[in-house]
Design goal:
The complex is a heterodimer of chains A (490) and B (494). With 490 residues, chain A is mainly alpha-helical. Chain A is built from 22 helices and two strands. Chain A has a domain of 215 residues. Helix content of chain A is 73%, strand content 2%. Classes of the chains: A mainly alpha (490), B mainly alpha (494).
Chain lengths: 490, 494
């Protein structure tokens, strides 16, 4: 970072440094730099840089960056924060990256692969959230997917090959549909620049409908929208912990971010046309997948399904926006819940990995009484489980309440319940479902008599407490004072 | 330097190599390949200082020669000449590192005598392709094409003690002759309708076709025949059926040359020959219709048939059909411009990226063939564990072939999609989306084999020879850099 004479922040170039630092570190690791150390240092520097960037987010010359890579059609490698949403997502990414780098253990002799993948996934996510050019917005997300696939296939657990192949095909197809939609969007607006798109003349309604369908399908598959969700749980169950944390916590939010960034503002009529199908599908996420989650017998599959289920709430916020474009609560609600869910699911998966490593199993039947031998683990897992259910005081509660309020923003007393309100009332039952499976899992794992596997399981070591505490503190901070993030979103 | 020197020098180089090979008594023959590559590098350099008649000094006698009504030298010609020279250069280098297989199947003794021509012949094909890039007259197109095709007859059947290679040679000979027949017959019809073989004159006549008294139906018949003939060269469905067998049977460097050089030559010829017809109201619509139908069929067949392949060479054969489909789709966009780029430029860009990734993959496959004696996808099993850097390079290349963003392959596909969408070719675009998705599946099969599968016991390690190692590293790096920054190739096309 160079600050020009006179303190002119023009040369800060914060966002490109954020994105390219992990890529440089990846190359360094490839060439033989110590993998763990490099990754941890990069993650820590990026956390600081990310906080600085968010502090400056309203100053375009501090965070903005643009160089032309193709003159015609004009494509720029451009980064910046068009609004607070990007800033929040960047914050989520840098926090979860630190936690992921500290969680899990690289298998002997595979450190380069393990840590290299973490760096690439993190770089891809940062690039996608910081890009202001459609081309790189899409491209960086794909960059993060490839190491995800490879890591699941190579270092995963259980039936890793099937799981990896499934996620590869689902997300590959989803990306294709998405790409078709994005090309069409470019064609309709004539520019790749996302800011310029907003100022382009409105797109005609029939085209909007077509593009919105492609974007909903494409982004929807990436976010595991029902019924395109079946890749998620097996992939998360078999992926190495850091990959699951980064994908479920951060990368999956790319689809929601894309819908909020592109589909909602640019295609209001198109989104509105698909409102009813979207509401039906999101209820599929909350209720059907919720039901599936309750019947899971393994903790990792349960967490994987619960993450699919919670996507339904965020889609509800998007639906509320589609139904009422002027809804001033819906967008902050969606972003807040994305952030909260990302942090809580990363914490849960990180701790689940720890449970498996010390007890050798994640089968709920085989576990029990772990709270006696590992009280710190039990305490932190409890907080994460409560956050996931939506207990007040933790970040998820703020997000969920805002989503439900947003859904009722367009409520008109004289006309009665509209489709969004009906969906909202049904979706609220999801909170009960979450409580059932989370509390049951907690009881099975941590309470009751100690099982064979858990009798002398060690508690969290200091180095393992750091990522868990970092995520827990984030959950508490945002839960108790949501304005930390909401101020960014105004 | 006048541009016609380039081809003259190339042919001279080829002849000199043949003579030297015949009269210099050495046991080893790979020096012919190295000499050929040095010569090609010089010609590649000269290509960038060569000038056409339009840039000649006033009064230069050569600029007035009637030769220039047969060939031209514009940016596109320069680009394609550089392209085919680079391609030939890499193929010759690949052949040098592939010589163990060449000698095994050419001589009983296992010595290198009798393999020298294999390094000289591609130079002649290169000269033919360079002429094709400059075509301004249908007669030249035919002659140049024959120079290339006849050279390939020899190159395909070169492994005379290998049944597969001989079978491929016969197939290529028969179908090549058939396609030539279609082409000549088509040229005859076009000549019959217009009274000329000069493409510029034809374009002038067709500008107001009805006024010039050109008959539409016979002309379209001729164009259709020419399209069939060229369809064989680029591998468009339904003229693709020779590709998998010939690609699988031919020696590996020949396969690489066929799938990159010959295909590119087919496309530049298609661009040059169709140019006057696409510019005329009389013929544009039906020709574009045929191109769109060909593109859709090629995309569908090439990609779906590739899914089931287990032999890597055959997979690359189907992949070459699939890529031809994408390029035909761009051509079917006709006069549509996308951000200042026309269809010809997009196809040329696509071919440029296709050269980088395909040749790099062939370099790797060639060494797998030499050192593991196999060309199946399963021969790549476990490469990620035993050779992580090679596997990483191959992963990047496969991802680029599949069209994963931030690789050069993606930008090519992206531009094709963009022009097709702008031209409103909805059905072919839909099929192309399915095709691209299928591409993900079968290219990732290779990635999966490398990283997820375990090698069979006793699999020999792969040690890349110097030439191959630098070629693979350089080409892979280019694929990544162009994925971020594609402007240099587009600058060449201006």
């Amino acid at each position: 970072m160079v600050i020009a004479p006179g303190g002119n922040p023009r040369t800060l170039m914060l966002t490109p440094i954020l994105v390219f630092l992990p890529i440089v570190a990846f190359v360094a690791v490839l060439l033989g730099a110590p993998a763990r150390l490099t990754t941890l240092a990069t993650a820590a520097i990026n956390l600081v840089l990310g906080l600085v960037a968010i502090y400056f987010w309203k100053c375009p010359s501090c965070t903005g960056f643009s160089v032309s890579v193709l003159e015609q059609p004009s494509i720029h490698l451009a980064f910046g924060f068009p609004d607070g949403m990007s800033a929040v997502m960047i914050l989520l990414t840098v926090i979860v990256t630190v936690a992921a780098a500290l969680t899990g253990k690289a298998p002997e002799g595979r450190e380069t692969l393990h840590y290299g993948s973490i760096l690439l996934i993190s770089a891809g996510a940062l690039g996608a959230f910081a890009s202001t050019d459609l081309f790189f917005f899409f491209a960086f997300h794909e960059l993060a997917l490839i190491p995800t696939f490879l890591m699941i296939g190579m270092l995963g657990r259980g039936d890793r090959r099937t799981a990896a192949w499934k996620i590869t095909i689902y997300l590959g197809l989803g990306s294709m549909v998405l790409l078709a939609g994005l090309v069409w969007l470019y064609n309709a607006t004539g520019t790749f620049d996302m800011t310029a798109m907003k100022n382009a003349p409105p797109i005609d309604p029939a085209t909007q409908k077509g593009i919105a369908a492609l974007l909903l399908l494409g982004f929807g598959t990436l976010v595991s929208l029902f019924p395109f969700h079946s890749w998620a749980a097996p992939a998360y169950a078999s992926a190495p912990a850091p990959v699951t944390m980064l994908h479920a916590g951060v990368l999956k939010k790319f689809g929601l971010y894309g819908l909020l960034r592109l589909a909602v503002p640019l295609l209001p009529e198109g989104m509105n046309a698909w409102l009813t199908p979207l509401l039906v599908l999101l209820l599929g996420n909350v209720l059907w997948v919720g039901y599936v989650t309750v019947s899971q017998k393994r903790l990792d599959l349960m967490l994987g399904n619960s993450s699919v289920m919670h996507m339904g709430y965020i889609f509800l916020a998007i639906a509320a926006l589609a139904a009422m474009p002027g809804n001033d609560l819906a967008a902050p609600a969606a972003v807040l819940l994305m952030f909260a869910h990302g942090v809580s699911i990363a914490l849960l998966f990180g701790l689940a990995d720890r449970i498996e490593r010390s007890t050798g199993t994640l089968d709920l039947e085989d576990l029990g009484g772990l709270a006696k031998s590992a009280p710190a683990l039990a305490f932190l897992f409890g907080i994460a489980a409560m956050a996931s259910i939506g207990l007040p005081g933790l970040a998820n509660f703020a997000g969920e309440v805002l989503v439900f309020l947003a859904a009722f923003r367009s409520y008109d007393g004289t006309a009665g319940f509209g489709p969004v309100q009906i969906a909202c009332v049904l979706a609220i039952w999801g909170v009960v479902i979450s409580a059932i499976y989370m509390l049951r899992a907690y009881r099975n794992i941590f309470q009751g008599p100690a099982a064979d596997a858990t009798g002398n399981a060690p508690d969290l070591a200091l180095s393992e407490r750091i990522p868990a505490v970092l995520l827990t503190v984030t959950l508490l901070a945002v839960g108790l004072y949501p304005n930390l993030l909401l101020d960014l979103l105004k | 330097m006048p541009a016609y020197y380039l081809e003259a020098l190339t042919v001279t180089l080829g002849l000199a190599l043949l003579m030297a090979e015949a009269f210099v008594p050495t046991a080893r023959k790979s020096w012919v390949g190295l000499a050929a590559s040095v010569g090609l590098v010089i010609i590649l350099g000269l290509n960038f200082i060569a000038i056409g008649p339009q840039d000649a000094k006033p009064g230069a006698a050569w600029a007035e020669w009637p030769l220039w009504s047969f060939i031209e030298f514009d940016a596109l010609a320069r680009y394609y000449k550089a392209f085919v020279i680079l391609c030939t250069l890499l193929v010759v280098l690949m052949a040098v590192d592939h010589r163990r297989i060449l000698t095994r199947f050419t001589n009983r003794s296992g010595g290198e005598e009798g393999t020298g021509e294999y390094y000289a012949l591609p130079v002649f094909a290169c000269a033919g392709m360079m002429w094709m890039a400059s075509v301004r007259d249908l007669a030249v197109a035919f002659v140049a094409l024959e120079l290339v095709t006849i050279t390939f007859y020899v190159l395909v059947a070169y492994l005379r003690r290998n049944v597969g290679s001989l079978e491929a040679g016969v197939k290529y000979l028969i179908l090549g002759a058939l396609s030539t027949g279609f082409l000549v017959y088509g040229i005859a019809w076009i000549y019959g309708c217009t009274g000329t073989m000069n493409l510029d004159v034809i374009a002038g006549m067709l500008n107001d076709g009805r006024a010039a008294g050109v008959q539409r139906v016979p002309l379209l018949f001729g164009i259709a025949l020419v399209l069939v003939g060229l369809g064989f060269k680029v591998g468009a469905v339904p003229m693709q059926f020779w590709i998998p067998d010939v690609y699988q049977g031919a020696p590996l460097p020949t396969t690489a040359f066929l799938s990159v050089g010959s295909k590119a030559a087919g496309f530049i010829l298609l661009i040059r020959v169709l140019d006057p017809f696409l510019g005329s109201e009389l013929t544009a619509k039906p020709v574009l219709g045929i191109l769109a139908a060909l593109a859709a069929a090629t995309l569908l067949f090439g990609n779906l048939a590739a899914i089931a392949q287990t032999n890597f060479k055959r997979l690359l054969a189907y992949s070459s059909i699939a890529h031809a489909g994408f390029m035909l789709l761009a051509l079917a966009g006709g006069e549509t411009m996308i951000g200042g780029l026309n269809a010809a430029q997009i196809v040329s860009f696509y071919l440029g990226t296709y050269l980088l990734m395909t040749l790099a993959v062939f370099f790797v496959l060639s060494q797998i063939r030499v050192q593991r004696d196999g060309e199946e996808i399963r021969d790549f099993n476990g490469l990620g564990k035993s050779h992580p850097r090679l596997a990483l390079a191959l992963t990047v290349l496969m991802a680029s072939l599949a069209g994963v963003p931030l690789t050069a392959g993606f930008i090519g596909k992206f531009l094709v999609f963009a022009i097709a969408v702008k031209a409103g070719l909805w059905w072919p675009v839909g099929i192309a989306a399915i095709a691209a998705a299928a591409g993900f599946y079968y290219y990732f099969k290779v990635i999966r084999a490398m990283w997820w599968a375990d090698a069979a016991d006793g699999t020999p390690p792969v040690v890349l020879p110097q030439l191959t190692r630098y070629a693979v590293a350089g080409l892979t790096l280019a694929v990544v850099v162009l994925g971020f920054y594609p402007q240099p190739i587009l600058d060449l096309l201006k």
